[in-house]
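Appendix C. Worked example: Prephenate dehydrogenase
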Amino acid sequence: MTLQNIAIIGLGLIGASLLRALKSLPAERSSSLYIKGYDPGIPQDEREELLHLGLDRFEERKQELYDADLIILAAPAATNITLLDEISRLAPKSTLVTDVSSTKSQIARRASELQLDFIGMHPMAGREQQGYKASQDGLLHDRPLVLCCKPELCMDGRAAELRSLLEAIGCRVFFMDPEEHDRMVASVSHLPQLLSTTLMNHCGKHIETAGPGFNAMTRLAGSPWVIWEDIIATNQENISTELKAFSRELETLAEEIEQGNLEHLAKAFSSANRLRHELNTRTVQ
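Step 2, the predicted output written as structure tokens:
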């Protein structure tokens, strides 16, 4: 293995969960991993807690931080893009760089401009709570993870090692190009977040009488804006397209209900039931 010296920049929910997952691998594999990290948002008196989670060193010196076989950028999307310039100056040319941002086109384009060895990745996992205290070593287990790399390129060298590490911690790896990825997440990730937020605000005056169904539907409304600001800013066109398409679906639904077209609604429920069953089956497997 050549991916032994790993730097994680951003030790929040995903960064710390990756750390914990890698350090929870069987000893014959985890013992070869030296993981250092940095997060400016973690105060001095809490850094010891990250060492208990498996971090080998909290590294503030940038030259030493970027001197790694693998750099994982786990900060907000815009910050990750900005850090690429610094990495291109300070990291060895052989360093493989990846990120866990929820959008991929802009960061992939900038990495290409800087001629970095870069493979974007996106673990499709998360929680409404943020920060390393909400991290879990099993957060990414059996969850989809997208690598923005052609499958054949991940069969050799460090790209193959990265894929192997991700599969070792239980991720189900999929391959997409950055543009396809951003269209996909606008549909199945960004749209649900914005719908949940809007639904909560729309129905806010009735929440005292809301039941568990409403609570389940609005779980994502607890997500912080500080995370979503960069996501929306770096995927505006795709998100706007999905919102407009969904608004047309809502208009059609309102018309069907107004006209009492129960047959059409029955078909919609049947289709949704089937798709929901497929989703649950894949999640459990």
